[in-house]
Amino acid sequence: MTAFSRFEVIPAVDVQDGAVVQLVGGERGTGTVYGDPVEAAADWVEAGAETLHLVDLDGAFEGERANADAIEAVVAATDEAVDVQLGGGIRTAADAQGLLDAGVDRVILGTAAVENPAVVAEITDTHPGSVVVSLDAKDGEVVVAGWTESTGLDPATAAERYASLGAGAILFTNVDVEGQLDGVDTDAVDAVASAVDVPVIASGGVATVDDVLALRRAGAAAVVVGTALYEDRFTLREAQAAVDAA
């Protein structure tokens, strides 16, 4: 199910070399390590997470999944406790369908969707509502291949295209502010959310609970938070409670 029944604050569990890592601006070599993915996932479930956002960072950069064992351990450990959305290195419909059949609730496609838009419809045919198309923006353009290649695509225009192909949700990440704890760009989120009827999951730059609330006001249906949670800028419960009370 991709439609969020309420605005969700979603913890990020980004995995590099088998460990939880948060990058700054999507750049390799900038990561801070935060321990074991299974332990992190268990902590977020205990803290009240309803969805976990898993990314195989090595897979995103290299084009093939490189942390399958760690990811599968997280999925197994959180089985049915929360929804799991997974991205990074998923390049074919067969890859995605295999992950969905194995217990992943939603697959996140970035490079694959840009290079072959038809893959979105192909996966949707067998697993309706399960595809989240990731639109990562740097300098106002969609970037792929681990945020290293610009496509020249406008995020809002691209979002419309993928929604029409059956995407169940759009994950919009502002790479310019990712991992920097400097605040969010609500105008960019508003542009994408206004362009589509499917849920938009915002990511990038969240430093405070006020940033979370600002993204909700901008039209996002959920927000992925990584560094701010790992650095104890606020707790997951605090953020979700603030949203629920707004």
Task: Please describe what this structure looks like.
- The chain has one domain (8-245): TIM Barrel.
- The chain is 37% helix and 26% strand.
- It has helices at 37-46, 57-62, 68-77, 93-101, 111-115, 118-126, 155-164, 186-195, 209-217, 227-230, 236-245, and strands at 8-16, 19-24, 27-33, 51-56, 83-87, 106-109, 131-138, 141-144, 149-150, 169-174, 200-203, 222-225.
- Strands 1-4-5-6-7-10-11-12 form an eight-stranded parallel β-barrel, surrounded by eight helices.
- The longest helix has 10 residues, at 37-46.
Low-confidence stretches: none
CATH structural fold name: TIM Barrel
Instruction: Give me the CATH architecture, please.
Output: Alpha-Beta Barrel
- Percent helix among the residues? 25-40%
CATH superfamily: Aldolase class I
Class by helix and strand content? alpha/beta
Tally of extended strands? 12
SS field, number of helical segments: 11
- Order of strands side by side in the largest beta sheet? 1-4-5-6-7-10-11-12
Order of secondary-structure elements: EEEHEHHEHEHHEEEHEHEHEHH
Shape category:
globular
The percentage of residues in β strands lies in 25-35%
CATH class: Alpha Beta
Biggest sheet architecture: 8 strands, parallel, barrel
Average predicted confidence as pLDDT: 87
Number of domain units = 1
